[in-house]
Amino acid sequence: MLVHEDREYLLEPGAEFGTDLGVIEVPEDVAAGDTVETHLGTVFEVRELRGPDLFDHLERTGAPMMPRDIGLVLGLTGVSRGDRVLDAGTGTGILAAHLGRVDADVTSYEIDPEFAEVARENMRIAGVDDRVEVRTGDLTAHLDALAADDPLHVLTLDTGDAPAVVERAGALLVSGGYVAVYSPFVEGTREAVRAAREAGLVEIETRETIQREMDFSDRGSRPSTGGVGHTGYLVIARAP
């Protein structure tokens, strides 16, 4: 990633890109810590792509999960190196990329072929294409085969039919494994909780994600009046 003051560009080695600050020619052997100068003399710093940068720079195919929600999923499921994770509703792939960046072994299902192709490229850019496999298809059609595989440590769902998958979570997860269901609507959240109870899952908790930025000025300090405080609902449950 190339950075100059408030400018950030995600460019591949060897790429050429025109800006109002001049044409950027990225060397093939570029590395983090290097500088790249445009033909007008503007200097850009080369930085390693970090997790928070993914939200701003990966190609989007819809509304990606917000960093605040991703943080809750990672923290509340304890996903870690070597965990087997099944993810559904890949979309842009922001969550799947973060799961891969903690060195989990991730299989992610996306029903839209075009979205899936974009997500695969995003996994390459994020540097996790060796740990995240994006499959095209409807997860519910593959549950029987997946239940016959090695059990999962974590199941993450961001789909409208998440309750149907939660009903099968007991057959998919190791004892003590977690399921995390994200939904922007309370109706889908309620159905996910119902499915978790009927499936015999335990430690079922539901959270609404609300976060406000703070503004500081000479006049005083207060929560920002801009932005969206609410992003969605997150259901966390555990296999007994």
List the helices and strands and how they pair.
Elements: E1 2-4, E2 7-9, E3 16-19, E4 22-25, E5 35-37, E6 43-46, H1 51-57, H2 67-77, E7 84-88, H3 94-101, E8 105-110, H4 113-126, E9 132-136, H5 143-147, E10 152-157, H6 162-166, H7 169-172, E11 173-183, H8 186-198, E12 202-210, E13 214-216, E14 221-223, E15 230-238
Parallel strand pairs: 7-8, 7-10, 8-9, 10-11
Antiparallel strand pairs: 1-2, 1-6, 3-4, 5-6, 11-15, 12-15, 13-14
Can you tell me about this structure?
With 240 residues, the protein is an alpha/beta fold. The protein has two domains: 2-46, no CATH class; 53-238, Rossmann fold (3-Layer(aba) Sandwich), CATH 3.40.50.150. It is built from eight helices and 15 strands. β13 (214-216) and β14 form a beta hairpin. It is globular.
Q: Kindly, what is the distance between the CA atoms of the first and last residues, rounded to a whole number of angstroms?
A: 44 Å
Mean pLDDT equals 93
CATH superfamily of the largest domain: Vaccinia Virus protein VP39
Question: Which second-level CATH architecture of the largest domain applies?
Answer: 3-Layer(aba) Sandwich
Q: Specify the structural class.
A: alpha/beta
Tell me roughly what share of residues is in helical segments: 25-40%
| Principal-axes shape call | globular
Rg, Cα atoms, Å? 20 Å
**N-to-C SSE string, H for helix and E for strand:** EEEEEEHHEHEHEHEHHEHEEEE
Name the beta content range. Answer: 25-35%
Poorly predicted runs are: none
